[in-house]
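Input:
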Amino acid sequence: MRHFLTLFRHELRLLFITPSTYVAGTLFLCLMGGIYWFALQQAALQKGLEMLPVESYFYLFWVPLFILVPLITMRSFAEERRAGTLGALMTTPTSPFAIVMGKFAAAYSLYIVLWALALLFPVIAWWMLKDFCPDPRLLALSSLKGGALFVAISGLLYIAVGILASSLTRSMLVAGLLTSCALFILIVAGGLLQMLPLDVYESFAWLQAPAEYLRTFKHLENFYGGLIDSRPFFLFVSGAALALGLTVINVESKA
Amino acid sequence: MDDSEKSIPEDAIYVRGLCKNYGAYKAVSDVSFTVKRGEIVGFLGPNGAGKSTTMRILAGLQPANSGVARICGISVSRDAFRTKSHLGYMPENNPLPEELRVIEYLRWRARLKDVPEKELRARVESVMAACDLARSARRKLIGSLSKGFRQRVGIADALLSEPDVVILDEPTIGLDPHQILGIRSLIRSLRGKKAVLISSHILPEIENVCDRVIIINQGHIVASGTPEDLRREFVRTRRFELVADTTAEQVKAVLSADSVEALPAAEAGSRFTVQIAVENAGEDFLAKLHAAGIRVFEFHECVPCLEDIFIAATRRTYDIVDSISNKS
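Output:
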């Protein structure tokens, strides 16, 4: 890991000079801005507020994720393998683990920076509307903090999956599509499994507990509801570790 | 760095019985050779002969199926990490990141190659000066560089960490004659300091620069030695060229007693290529021609070039392989 910082700085620099980063950033911020505007409108129209604007905002976190994560991660290994620069990198006394972690850390940092910018929307809306509408629910700080923590923790897994997908192919397009598909499965799989009548069939009954554990939206609700336990941390961190481990093996064998 | 790392063995590159298979296809089969400290060795072979595979194995980029490969006494398979700190490698096609400037790229590579931070700027400047990148290309984007400059960036990268072993896969491919001369003198400057292994298709290039040549074909080493040794081993005939006021038939008739084969040259009416077995002296040609009343205007021996050796050596492998496949 002794070259981690060198690689991290280099990857971060590459991300900031790549047009796809700016495309991803702009699309993401536009979408998040639109989602928050939509959430505010819904809140204004409803009489009894079912969900806080911030909660509605986080509930749709997955929509821009399908664009943001592939655009940030698809380049990382696919482009290096296509150009052959990954082989050149592997001829230096640098471990594949440091290379993977450098790329992961850079992509995750960018992900966090973009989310930090997106979280400014509720703050800006509150600051602009606080004189006309002094409702404390306009900026529910506890929900905002919980949602932000969820985004940060789940981002570890989503970015790691993007990095893994990028290491599987030489084509950025294929890597992007693989990432989108994998994210869709990860986000929706738990919910879909629960919709199946698992309790009817005795042999599948054991699947109910894993399906409950994999429900991303359940974890999100817990986070912005202020209920933070170790299970989602374990799920996302171990998932990210598994994806990164597979990436290291893949990079080592295919350089 | 411990003492064992400081003391580099005489054989900076040591390869014994190296084999690499891709399924049923044997890319490298029982390859053995050494490159001594300070020696420049040319690695020749036709396309698909196994040159780049051998070089990639030495660079730790892919594992061998069997055999031993050592860089500075350290096994590549057991401790690839340590061997890489002794090695400067320029791969075939020289892949480079297009979006970086030359100086940025070299500084980044220097950091990855553990060049001390205090020496980093000076080291980068020195390799850029050596590869003629300092004046015109230092701040250019790599993507905008010509093929020649890209090759120089690759060579500069290989030399950055002042490695004990330098492996260059086709370093002069795509360069113009001026650039080739520059790279040639740069490689020559490494003689006596580093073990250098170069692969190239440009045979005069290898002949000009290398102390020794290894010829590989169909995964086997078919010849190894100095160009002089290889000439003796592979070229069994001597060739002379003469210009005379006669016909090819007459030259043939006069020199037939020595079982000399006279071949008319392509276009010129009075120019002949005469070929004899190497054990024949051939020096009495002039006397015989003079005695026959043939006036000779020009006469010289054609020294076989590496191209002739290369063709003879690779043809021998094809014959061996053909005979094996016929038997089977």
